[in-house]
Design goal:
Oligomer: single chain
CATH architecture of the domain at 25-265: 3-Layer(aba) Sandwich
CATH topology of the domain at 25-265: Aspartate Aminotransferase, domain 2
Radius of gyration: 22 Å
CATH class of the domain at 25-265: Alpha Beta
Helix content: 25-40%
Largest sheet: 7 strands, mixed
Order of helices and strands: HHEHEHEHEHEEEEEHHHEEEHHEHHEH
Bound molecules: pyridoxal-5'-phosphate
CATH superfamily of the domain at 25-265: Type I PLP-dependent aspartate aminotransferase-like (Major domain)
Shape: globular
Strand content: 5-15%
Length: 434
């Protein structure tokens, strides 16, 4: 069994690993009840009782707000649309700069663009991989209006320092909590650490409703504006007597009653699935700690990580092989996740390519063909999206970081043992990979 599978040997395991699944009988029943009611969405895009949606949406919002301790929870049809609502609600205007991390899902960075905001990339922290406070500080200019802080991979962003910076410079903090439902910092839930937070309920997240999202805030005015943007604000403003029309061009970001009914069941499962995930992390880490070239995820003091993925560092010099080769060799030892063959991350070298390298930024083409909104950046801003602007992210992406999902709650003892065996086998035979 010592010949590596990537070199033609027998893999550690050939039958599929359990896929992650949280949908069960509760969700099925809840959906059936909504179907039986015949009312799959109760929204109306005008001011009145149904502007706020139907009973399932409203119940989800109440339960979400109670669970996370947020004054307002506003259901939307994705985290992407929630982020757009948040950017619109805080009043981002064309030409405003919004500081963003390059290591995140693209939606975080696209949201400012929708309102003509200009994303300015700050580097990430080499330990938690979340946006780095020192790097943010260097990027603040008189044009900066907001910071997008992402709780990346399940670790809460550095809220004490970043919020203080924001306060000092009069900036809004929008927290992208898509990957961290249930994470905490000093007893406060992630999602509720900034001025406004956004969760995702897409299929790949800890809990899901197929697609969906929830915006949370303690600020009454922001909540009001998010609700307007969610549901045709332009048609509602008059009836509701809204005076401030900035960014109220509305969308249809409404969640259906079916999704809301599923999301309510899922929310009740969140604590349990997070606890099981954490147990698996501990079990796996006890073994991975014996591989000297692997550095396990760091958890900052006072933080509770929820491990959307288990993101580790690999020391190429110590191992004597490239990270990509190591990761490919581990992947070859292990089968796909059942029912998720072409989906999600089994194990991967790095995360997304640093987002400033997307063609959109390289060619500065977002809306129309004339470079809007980048063209609004004054010459003294020296706007650049060149390779090298976030060296920590680039190093992580090209050489150091790998992540995997072998910690999900349905992985049992033998599954974890197989994963451990795969890592150990590759480590012990790494010279064969040279
Ligand atoms: C950090 C982050 N932000 C935003 C999103 C977008 O979420 P959604 O698919 O719900 O729009 C994701 C989804 O992968 C994400 O990981």
């Amino acid at each position: 069994m010592s010949k590596l599978a990537i070199l033609g040997g027998t893999p550690v395991r050939s039958h599929p690993l359990p896929g992650y699944r949280t949908i069960g009988a509760e969700e099925q029943l809840a959906v059936e009840q909504v179907l039986a009611s015949g009312a799959l969405s109760r929204y109306l895009g005008c001011w009145g009782e149904m502007f706020m949606g139907g009973p399932q949406v409203r119940a989800l919002e109440e339960e979400w707000s109670a669970h996370f301790g947020a004054r307002h929870a506003i259901a939307v049809n994705s985290c992407t649309s929630g982020l757009m609502c948040a950017i619109g609600a805080v009043g981002i205007e064309p030409g405003d700069e919004v500081i963003v991390p390059p290591y995140t899902m693209s939606a975080t960075v696209m949201a400012p663009l929708i309102y003509g905001g200009i994303p300015i990339f700050a580097d990430v922290c080499p330990q938690t991989f979340c946006i780095d406070a020192e790097s943010i500080q260097k990027k603040i200019t008189p044009r900066t209006k907001a910071i997008m802080a992402v709780d990346l991979f399940g670790h809460p962003y550095n809220a004490p320092i970043i919020n203080a910076l924001a306060q000092k410079h009069g900036l809004r903090v929008i927290e992208d909590c898509a990957q961290a439902p249930g994470a905490r910092l000093h007893q406060r839930y992630a999602g509720c650490l900034g001025d406004v937070g956004v969760f995702s309920l897409n299929y790949h997240k800890h809990i899901h409703s197929g697609e969906g999202g929830v915006v949370v805030t303690d600020d009454d005015d922001l909540a009001d504006r998010v609700r307007l943007i969610r549901n045709h604000g332009e048609s509602v403003a008059e009836g509701k007597g809204v005076k401030n029309l900035v960014n109220l061009v509305g969308f249809n970001f409404r969640m259906t009653e079916i999704e809301a009914a599923i999301a309510r069941c899922q929310l009740r499962k969140l604590d349990n699935v997070n606890a099981l995930r954490l147990e698996n992390v501990h079990k796996l880490e006890r073994a991975l700690a014996n591989i000297p070239a692997i550095t396990l995820p760091v958890v900052h003091q006072g933080a509770q990580h929820v491990y959307y993925v288990h993101a580790c560092l690999f020391d190429e010099q110590m191992a004597g092989i490239h990270r990509n080769r190591f990761v490919a060799a581990v992947a070859a030892e292990l089968p796909v996740f059942q029912g998720r063959e072409a989906e999600g991350v089994k194990i991967s070298s790095g995360y997304v390519r640093p987002l400033y390298l997307l063609p959109l930024f390289q060619q500065r083409i977002a809306f129309g063909s004339q470079g809007f909104p980048f063209s609004l950046s004054p010459p003294e801003a020296q706007l650049t999206y060149a390779k090298g602007i976030c060296p920590v992210t680039e190093q992580l992406h090209e050489h150091k970081l790998f992540l995997h999902e072998f910690i999900h709650p349905l992985m049992e003892e033998q599954d974890l043992l197989d994963v451990i065996h795969a890592f150990e086998k590759v480590w012990e035979n790494r010279k064969d990979l040279l």
